[in-house]
From TrEMBL:
Source species, domain of life: Eukaryota
Sorted UniProt keywords: Metal-binding, Zinc, Zinc-finger
Cited Pfam families: zf-MYND (PF01753)
Any GO molecular function: zinc ion binding
Stored InterPro entries: Znf_MYND
Lineage of the species this protein comes from: Eukaryota, Fungi, Dikarya, Basidiomycota, Agaricomycotina
Domain MYND-type: 23-66
Official protein name in the record: MYND-type domain-containing protein
Length: 236
């Protein structure tokens, strides 16, 4: 199913399924299908059949995962988790201790399409697989120029801010291919009173919140409750 980004009116189509009959009982599986058209299941567009008979025979099996594909809106997802990703950027790049990391590094978030994992209405269209800090240099290999961001950062730094941080969202999928989306965060000031090491376990927290294991409103409470660095050092 297409991934869309409603924030910029982008629509990315899935590629079509391979020309193989989905039915396990298909008599022509080993001999090829002649010149017959391999029609797609009109409901899900994810599988093909060489004949109506094959489609009928496979239906008891196929109906378990055949669904009208949902629209996967990455723009809406990014907007919803904007504060979370911003926080992850600050923690992941350790900006409170080394603000200059914003110039050399970025945050990489790998996403999986939820419709590939489960059937029915998913609680969120994307699942975070992993989130990590990567050197900016790696982003150049996907053709992203750093210059505009450096320029913006210099301006922000001149005005007493931290800079412009980059979050890279990476959705890799057999049908839709690899999709990158970028999110820029202008960081004027860091949250007060949070000097010290990065929040321990920030990656786990980001995943848990975005994947629906922790309600968003609980995050702020968790962060307020986390032990200060001195307490943590004392308990070791
Ligand atoms: Zn067939
Ligand atoms: Zn189907």
């Amino acid at each position: 199913m297409p991934i869309i980004d409603s924030s910029i009116n982008l629509r990315i189509k899935d590629s079509k399924p391979p020309k193989v009959c989905q039915s396990l009982e298909c008599p022509d599986y080993h001999t090829g299908y002649g010149n017959r058209k391999m029609k797609m299941c009109s409901r899900c567009n994810v599988v093909r059949y060489c004949s109506n008979t094959c489609q009928r025979e496979d239906w008891p099996e196929h109906k378990l995962f055949c669904q009208i594909p949902p629209l996967l809106d990455i723009g809406e997802w990014m907007e919803m988790y904007d504060p979370l990703l911003r926080w992850a950027l600050i923690e992941g790049l350790n900006l409170r201790n080394e603000p200059s990391n914003i110039l050399s590094d970025a945050l990489l978030v790998r996403l999986t399409r939820m419709d590939r994992i489960m059937v029915g209405v998913a609680p969120t269209p994307f699942l975070i697989d992993s989130v990590c800090r990567i050197p900016w240099a790696k982003m150049q290999s996907i053709g992203l120029s750093q210059e505009p961001r450096l320029k913006a950062s210099r301006k922000i730094i001149e005005d007493g801010g931290v800079g412009q941080g980059l979050v890279v969202l990476w959705i890799s999928d057999q049908l839709s291919g690899t999709i990158f989306r970028f999110q820029y965060h202008t960081i004027q000031a860091l949250p007060p009173g949070e000097k010290g090491a990065s929040c321990p376990g920030w990656q786990k927290i980001v995943k848990a919140v975005a994947n629906g294991e922790i309600p968003v409103d609980l995050l702020s409470r968790m962060l307020e409750d986390r032990p200060s660095d001195s307490e943590e050092a004392a308990s070791i």
